[in-house]
Amino acid sequence: QVQLVESGGGLVHAGESLRLSCEASGSISSIATMAWYRQAPGQELQLVARIATTGATNYAHCVKGRFTIFRDNAMVYLQMNSLEPDDTAVYYCHSTSLSPLRYFWGQGTQVTVSS
C-alpha cells in the first residue's frame, strides 16, 4: 500500500506561481512512476505530468514550458509557473506500483487561478 498526501494548493492570480507537494508513505520502494492529474468542473481527469524512477518526464501539451515535475525520495512536486485561469482544477497525486500492478491516489488539492 502507498499513501499519498498533497499540499500547496490555493488561490492565485493569472501569471503567478504555485508549488504542489505530494508525500508518499508506505511501500515507497514499490513505486515505479508518480504523476499529477487534474480535474476541472465538468471535465474529464487529465494527466498533467509524470515522472519515472529513471527521472524521465512527460507533460500535457498545455503545460509544457510552464510546469515542472520533480521527485525527491518520497516527495514529488509540481512547480507551476505562469498560471492561467484554465489551470483551475483539483490536482491529484498518483503513483503506480509494480509487482503487483497497483495504482494509488491522493485526496486532491484545489488550485484556483483568477483572471
Average pLDDT score: 96
SSE pattern: EEEEEEEEEEE
Shape: globular
- Structural class, from secondary structure content? mainly beta
Q: Total helix count?
A: 0
- Low-confidence parts lasting 5 or more residues at pLDDT below 50? none
Helix content: under 10%
How would you characterize the largest beta sheet?
7 strands, mixed
How much strand content do the residues show? over 45%
C-alpha end-to-end distance: 40 Å
Report on this model:
The protein is mainly beta. The chain is built from no helices and 11 strands. The strands form 2 sheets. Strands 2, 4, 5, 6, 9, 10 and 11 form a 7-stranded mixed beta sheet that branches. A 4-stranded antiparallel beta sheet has the order 1-3-8-7, with no helix packed on it. The protein is globular, with a radius of gyration of 14 Å. The N and C termini lie far apart (40 Å).
Give me the secondary-structure topology.
Layout: E1 2-7, E2 10-13, E3 18-26, E4 31-39, E5 46-52, E6 57-59, E7 67-72, E8 75-80, E9 89-97, E10 102-105, E11 109-114
Parallel strand pairs: 2-11
Antiparallel strand pairs: 1-3, 3-8, 4-5, 4-9, 5-6, 7-8, 9-10, 9-11
